[in-house]
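Working notes for the structural subgroup meeting. M.R. asked for a predicted model of this chain before we commit to crystallization trials. I am recording the input and output together here so anyone reviewing the notebook later can reproduce the run.

Input as submitted:
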Amino acid sequence: MCLKVSLGVCRFTLMSLLCLLFSNVTFAWGKRGHEIIASIGAELLVQKRGAQYLKVHGFDLGYYSNVPDIIFRNINSETSQLEGPQHFIDWNEKFIKTFEKPENLPVSFSEYKEKFSEGFNRELGLVPWRIRSLIDECKGLANQVMQNHELNIQGKLLVCLGVLSHYVGDLSMPLHVTDNFDGQKTHQQGVHAFFEVTVVDSLDPGLKVNVLEKSQQLFDEMSQQKLNPDQRVRALVSDSFSQIDELLAIDLKTDRKDIGLAKKRFRELVTRRLVKGSVVNALIWEEILKGVTEFNEKKFYFFDGSPKYIYPKFETEG
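Returned structure, recorded in token form:
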């Protein structure tokens, strides 16, 4: 087709299609933030629970944590549309009217749809149920590893854990639990990427060290809470939602062109959110990995550079 029209028209058409395709797509934390949450989660279980078998796979888990954004969203347009709402939940008045608070969100997706009734819209976000589905997937693989330590299954478990950490990380980013996800309702367009990518990148490499240091105490504190993974996920939604006003207020008084000032003002909040994401992720992994005490590392050279899409099975419920 491009041979029959001018190059300028082709470029315009391509850019128009790209803008249409990605106009409602948002990402959380960028590659660096997701990697931090996964690798720190692994390190916490190594240090706090003696899960030494995770030590040598910290890089792998950090890589797999970025698979949903880098690979899953780019398989094809159909998968991209299916995947998009798996990354957020637009907590707003519609949710409050039906459920009052995130802690009341049903674990069962079919029950959630039934209670929301005519108000149900998958475009409001599906991440709590995406996480539950992946927990089940990872737990099944962990049970197989306990039985026979098959190398291929160990590899699939690592992929599953890393992918799962991505969605947990999404929920630790305040702009992933609001319908004002890019500040468009408060005339702060662009704040999403600025906070999660520009500021995070400017704070590293010291950021990762700081997150690990602060995560250790919070891990001990949160370990004492008798919560199951689904309760931790819903508590994380509430916690992130409570941080939105602070994030937007800092942005309002900050010139984004002054990166030095921006990272100074955002440093504590960015660190706090990454710490919370790392700890919640580690605690969910701990629940999944109960009974897994070691990996068979003999000739275990597994690394999947382009994992197959993990279909959100929960969407077939009800």
